[in-house]
Amino acid sequence: MVKNRQWRLISFPSGRPEASNWELVETEAPEVAPGHLLVKALYLDVAPYMRGRISPQPNYAAGVGLGEVMVGGAVGRVLESRSPGFAAGDLVVADFAFGWQEYAVLSPGDVRRIDPALAPLPYWLDLFGLNGLTAYFALFDAGAMKAGDTVLISAAAGSVGQIAGQLAKLAGCRAVAVTSSAEKAAWCREAGYDAVIDYRAAADLPAAVAEACPQGVDLFLDNTAGPIHDAAMQNLALDARVVVVGTASLADTFGAPDTGPRFLRQILVARATVCGFLFSDYAARHEAGRARLRRWYEAGRIHSKFDIAEGIASMPDAFLRLLTSRNLGKQLVRLEGD
After folding, report:
1. Do the beta carbons of residue 48 and residue 318 sit within 8 Å?
2. Which residues form the Enoyl reductase (ER) domain (predicted)?
3. Distance CA 262, CA 206 (A)
4. Distance from C-alpha of 24 to C-alpha of 5, rounded to nearest angstrom
5. How far apart are CA 195 and CA 71, in angstroms?
6. In the chain, where do the E strands start and end?
7. CB neighbour burial string for 113-152, b if at least 16 within 10 angstroms, e if fewer
8. Which residues of 239-265 are buried (b: 16+ CB within 10 A; e: fewer)?
9. What is the average pLDDT across 20-25?
10. Rounded to whole angstroms, how far apart are CA atoms 113 and 92?
11. Is 9 left (phi over 0), alpha (psi -120 to 50) or beta?
């Protein structure tokens, strides 16, 4: 019987998560039920949304309970299929249903078959997965991005941000990055951003945004909340749009009231629109968005950087690396032997 190593949540973080919140256990790989697939992970996803899933506070999706396998996506290989639509050897991607483990039994509805000839495997958890579609729909739909906009993007060197900056340039916009180090700033410039703000080096962040966006911010893609959000709100252009995709800076304060500054006057004067964004709201259009992203990728107009850790044992450390902004590009874990 194949052994399956998996990470289970054993305690809820009281603040910032620690490796001790999870336990690595070894079990037997589950049997394949009729109509299902046994999949072996090749790459496991590491994503900011996972922080919200390990809080006992209410969230937009069900959380991970104590003793349960940590949620997450994966690219994997089908080892056994009891579904007529798949065969052993097929490569598939699961956006959420796989979990932090080496093997999973999945239903056909949990996975998509992928073509490694089109793009390397990591891209299927990035540009052609949650991150690419988030950037695409948040900008073009929720944010009504149009040519000539000044688009400000926080966490600009991360998984969503690096794609969003390139999409903004493809749309004929001025793309302005907010990131957290000189190394990340260099990657943002390489990815095509017109201006880059290192918020940790900025003595006055609102002034730095004003300098980088002299005509104001037409569209703000907010991946962080917190002080970066505050700086953007003080620099809104007329008819600005603010799309809240993530709140990474508030990740350790779930359930606490948001007592930061309020910007109702700025919203009023700019006649701005502020909205929240969830990837799942666009499920009916994911394939159309993915097809457009694929055309840009095949034309060589979008590329990604990856930060890849090795082995199932590295999952908690890779996740903490992401939460503390030490990753450069999309964070993934590659399993041993693959």
Report:
1. no
2. 15-333
3. 15
4. 7
5. 36
6. 3-9, 22-28, 37-45, 74-81, 91-94, 103-106, 112-113, 150-154, 174-179, 195-198, 217-222, 236-244, 273-276, 306-310, 330-334
7. ebeeeebebbbbbbbbbbbbbbbbbbbeebbebeeebbbb
8. ebbbbbbbbbbbbeebeeeeeeeebee
9. 97
10. 4
11. beta
Tokens of 279: 């990837």
Opening angle at CA 92, ends 302 and 289, nearest 5: 40
Whether residue 336 has pLDDT greater than 90 = no
Task: Answer for the pair 215, 238: CB distance below 8 angstroms, yes or no.
Answer: no
Chain mean position to CA 172: 24
- Is residue 337 predicted with pLDDT exceeding 70? no
Domain ranges for the chain? 3-126+305-334, 130-280
Confidence (pLDDT) at 338: 47
Residue 257: per-residue pLDDT: 58
pLDDT score of 62 more than 80: no
Report the mean per-residue pLDDT for the chain.
93
Show Cβ contacts of residue 113 under 8 Å, excluding neighbours closer than 6 positions: 86, 90, 91, 92
- Domain 3-126+305-334 and domain 130-280, same fold? Reply is no
CATH of domain 130-280: 3.40.50.720
Q: What share of the chain is helix, strand, coil (3-state, %, to 5)?
A: 30, 25, 40
pLDDT tens digits, 70-95: 999 999 999 999 999 999 999 999 99
CB 76 within 8 A of CB 41: yes
| Range with lowest mean pLDDT among 19-23, 222-226, 231-235, 249-253 | 249-253
Are 19 and 81 a contacting pair, CB within 8 Å?
Answer: no
What phi, psi does 25 have (nearest 5°)? -120, 155
Q: Which fold has domain 3-126+305-334?
A: Quinone Oxidoreductase; Chain A, domain 1 (3.90.180)
Question: Phi/psi class of residue 131: alpha, beta or left (left: φ > 0; alpha: ψ in -120 to 50)?
Answer: alpha
In the three-class reduction of DSSP (H, G, I as helix; E, B as strand; rest coil), residue 76 is classed as strand
- pLDDT at residue 259, rounded to an integer: 61
